Amino acid sequence: MVRRSTTAKTARATVNAPSLADTAYLHLEQMIVTLRLRPGSAVSEAELSERLGIGRTPIREALHRLARERLVVILPRRGIIVSDINVNTQLRLLEVRRVVECLVARSAARRSDQPTRTRFREIAAIFERCAKSNDDVGFMEVDREFNELCVDATRNEFASGAMSLMHSLSRRFWYLHYKQAADMPQTAKLHANMARAIASGREDAAELAANRLLDTIEAFTRATVTTEF
């Protein structure tokens, strides 16, 4: 019995362990979003492989995923470029994000199980603490978890796929401009309101909170100023 139990635990851990391609993606996505890989800069598989200590095949898989999310542009026989940041592109993205995010908010409010609702409440409390202390780093960290929890809670792979294509671009735009144009504490409070509404199971309240958050994000986007890279 003990041996079978240990084997089962090992098997589950193996299934849940991230692949090297997943690990490469997470590192590269974070480097792009936080501008350690600058918009417009050229990168190569060999350079990134050496920098991360991960083989070129997982790096290549991660780059193709990043290309689907429009964070890099792969130019055949010419190289790989980190995509530029453009206000007009971001506004077009927000048109789609608003529709999908409202669907995600309603679905998450309806379909979340009890442990997930508990985690939404915990995340709301973290957002509130970030707002009070003006903790931008903490906000960025919990925002990523919040986004992932929302799409997981929808139990809809199509909504999840659509949001995954937009979240990284939105986070990078925020990271670039928030110090010049954003009210971080207010934005964190709006995230907290949405998390609490989802946790409560109130679909209309969750959609309203999502719309109010997107109103603020759109206003922030329009208020950004040109930044030299």
Features:
229 residues, mainly alpha, Arc Repressor Mutant, subunit A, Four Helix Bundle (Hemerythrin (Met), subunit A), 2 domains, 3-stranded antiparallel β-sheet, 10 helices, globular
CATH superfamily of the largest domain: GntR ligand-binding domain-like
Q: What is the beta-strand fraction?
A: under 5%
Number of domains: 2
User: In which range does the helix fraction lie?
Assistant: over 70%
Distance between the termini: 60 Å
Strand order of the largest sheet: 1-3-2
How large is the radius of gyration? 19 Å
Q: What do the pLDDT scores average to?
A: 88
CATH class of the largest domain: Mainly Alpha
- Given helix and strand content, the structural type is mainly alpha
- Characterize the largest beta sheet: strand count, sense, and whether it forms a barrel: 3 strands, antiparallel
- Note the overall shape: globular
Distinct helical segment count = 10
Number of strands: 3
- CATH fold group of the largest domain: Four Helix Bundle (Hemerythrin (Met), subunit A)
CATH architecture identity of the largest domain? Up-down Bundle
Order of helices and strands: HHEHHEEHHHHHH
Poorly predicted spans: 1-15
